[in-house]
Design a protein that fits this description.
heterodimer; A: 305 residues; mainly alpha; MetI-like fold; flat; B: 2 domains; 12 helices
Chain lengths: 305, 331
């Protein structure tokens, strides 16, 4: 028995009762070798897991890119069904755009309330509900909007916007709140010391310095909403998709629902088109989220410097 | 401080006193207005949550009064005969999500460990965002990929192999003719929940004080022993909360599951048979539901899903109350 092993629960080896033995040689006993080997295996496992996840990402993107690229053409992007996807692209753009117009101001105001005005208890309640809404299955939000706006009326692009806005609201609010908390306290104190009223401080000092972060949160929320399918299936899925429409009061063709429908139909031409749409959608979403992340890193650096 | 505020906008020059007064009044109104608008926006979240619950329950009311609580245990679902029950869907939901969690959580926690403790800074900056990017892939694309690329592989390679090696348990039964199965759905759900759990647990592990870890190393602990003895115990509740969040996500996923699970209606012990989940049944049948009772029953499924989802989220909040993990997830 060499040096006593550590008293750690993970170590299956013996735990010495006597304590340190100064006469023991300072070389690795078999026990230590085993512990080291085990540690190395664990390290390899963790590394493997990380690279496995990246490999899955690469496989998904690669298969979408290869199959989607053959469907892509200029005509594909600018014509309506059956040859192209322009109506769906415009529809998604409009639905997400209106959703952003609803969710962004509300989210920013809610975040302002959380950081500038609310009492401790109000903060807790508000955060809790935002987190719960964020955790709601999106199909539930679809059911809600269906019951609220579609039942007894008809499907509409606007209903889709409302559903997506509900999904975006907690993301914008929490992201904005995070960046508002990063606004240096001395900016606020400086404004207070100059006798500037609260609303002026908020509008002219706090919001401008948090603008980068607010935009980041919004873009991330847009990236999330653009691919949402479940609520749109319930509230904006009955359309023919032959021509570009700008009427939000009608059911609007949109990319995610179209991919879903084509994949359920399962005929080869539809599948090819669905790959093409997937490639377009995934490109937009990944670009948006990469861009948002870069912006996030930059604004964080600026804030903390 | 208060003296400074009370002097707001009232210059000493006497001639300007009046305009200063007006400005002060204006500021007071504007302050109140801003407060009011912000409070309304924040309250909207609370109201929204209540209205969502109300609306879903209201939609389900006919089915709730017709089937009562027995709906949960009734396993037949035959819209043409007006017979509805959530039993097999509840089973499919729980099985697919827990299988996904069982596969995904260890992988995700390992990724978190790798990113926080092992990876060199440069590699971390690349792999971290890549893993998070996995969460940005829309579920409809993941499901589409799942049915066309993953399912044939699962059916042709993975399932036969599992059946040959572990086939003595009924869980790994004979592979079916198509790759659409509960198992494929679980794999897709795994892909969806891994980035969520991984990024939260990475942030948790990064927050473990460096000197405690160094202390353990100085006592001779190997890297694994530092993780097992220091890092994991001090973040256990956060990791559990992260897993619950992932579970909540898996329970509620509708689209990708619909695409790959095969919409079976029976309860099977074998993971390789088709099945269906609550969310997936709503997504696949709602657009085609004609009778009022069919719609109401789908709303009833929504009520069950809402309750399950709220429970898993509240549980995550409660377990992880020490950590503001949701903020971490939002990053």
């Amino acid at each position: 028995m060499g040096r006593p092993p550590l008293r750690l629960p993970a170590d299956g080896g013996e735990v010495s009762e006597i304590g340190f033995d100064p006469a023991a040689p300072l070389t690795a006993s078999g026990n230590l070798r085993r512990r080291r080997a085990f540690s190395r295996v664990a390290e390899l496992g963790a590394t493997g897991a990380a690279f496995f996840a990246v490999a899955v990402l690469a496989i998904v993107i690669y298969s979408v890119a290869v199959r989607g690229a053959s469907a892509l053409s200029f005509e594909f992007l600018v014509t309506g069904a059956p040859t192209g996807i322009a109506p769906a692209l415009v529809g998604t753009g409009l639905i997400v755009g209106v959703a952003t117009l609803i969710a962004m101001p509300l989210g920013v105001l809610a975040a302002l309330f959380l950081t500038e005005f609310a009492s401790e208890r109000m903060i807790r309640l508000s955060k809790l509900t935002l987190d719960l809404i964020n955790g709601l299955p999106s199909i539930i939000i679809g059911l809600f909007v269906f019951g609220l706006l579609v039942d007894h009326h008809k499907q509409s692009g606007f209903a889709g916007s409302v559903a997506l806005a509900i999904i975006m609201l907690p993301l914008v609010a929490r992201g904005t709140q995070e960046v508002l908390l990063l606004v240096p306290a001395n900016l606020r104190e400086g404004a207070d010391a100059l006798g500037v009223s609260r609303w002026r401080t908020v509008l002219t000092v706090i919001l401008p310095s948090a603008l980068g972060g607010i935009l980041t949160a919004t873009v991330l929320a847009v990236a999330r909403a653009a691919g949402e399918t479940a609520p749109l299936i319930l509230v904006s899925s009955v359309f023919d998709g032959k021509e570009v429409l700008f009427k939000m009061s009608e059911a609007m063709p949109n990319v995610p629902v179209r991919i879903f429908q084509l994949s359920e139909e399962g005929n080869p031409e539809g599948i090819a088109q669905a790959w093409g749409m997937s490639l377009v959608l995934i490109t937009i979403i990944l670009l948006a989220s990469v861009g948002a992340r870069a912006m996030h890193a930059r604004s964080r650096r600026k804030m903390s410097s | 401080m208060s003296a400074a505020t009370s002097a707001t906008g009232s210059p000493q020059v006497a001639g300007r006193a009046r305009s200063g007064q007006r400005r002060k009044q204006f500021d007071r109104i504007a302050d109140g207005l801003l407060f009011g608008v912000c409070a309304c926006a924040a309250l909207l979240g609370v109201v929204l949550m209540l209205v969502i619950a109300y609306q879903v329950v209201r939609g389900a009311a006919p089915a709730i009064s017709a089937f009562g609580i027995g709906f949960l245990f009734e396993t037949t679902w035959q819209p043409n005969f007006g017979v509805f029950g959530a039993g097999s869907l509840l089973f499919g939901t729980i099985v697919s999500s827990f299988v996904a969690l069982a596969i995904g959580a260890p992988i995700a926690i390992s990724i978190g460990l790798y990113l926080s403790l092992l990876a060199p800074a440069g590699v971390r900056g690349v792999i971290g965002p890549l893993v998070e990017m996995l969460a940005a892939i829309p579920s409809v694309i993941l499901g589409f990929w799942g049915i066309l690329i993953l399912a044939p592989f699962v059916q042709g390679t993975l399932e036969p192999w599992l059946h040959d090696t572990l086939g003595f348990t009924p869980i790994f039964g004979a592979p079916q003719t198509t790759g659409a199965s509960v198992f494929t759905a679980s794999l897709i759900l795994t892909i969806m929940i891994v980035p969520i759990i991984a990024s939260i647990s990475r942030d948790l592990f990064l927050a473990v004080p460096r000197d405690v870890q160094d202390g353990a190393s100085a006592l001779g602990a190997t890297r694994w022993e530092v993780v097992r003895g220091v890092v994991l115990p001090s973040t256990a509740s956060g990791v559990v909360a992260a897993s619950l969040l992932g579970l909540g996500r898996a329970l509620g996923e509708a689209i990708a599951v619909t695409q790959v699970i095969g919409a079976g209606s029976a309860i099977n012990a074998s993971l390789f048979k088709t099945g269906d989940t609550l969310a997936s049944r709503i997504a696949s049948q709602f657009p085609g539901a004609i009778t009022g009772m069919h719609k109401a029953s789908l709303f009833y499924l929504g009520v069950i899903l809402l309750v399950i989802g709220l429970i898993s989220n509240l549980a995550a909040q409660w377990v992880g109350r020490r950590f503001d993990y949701q903020r971490m997830a939002a990053k």
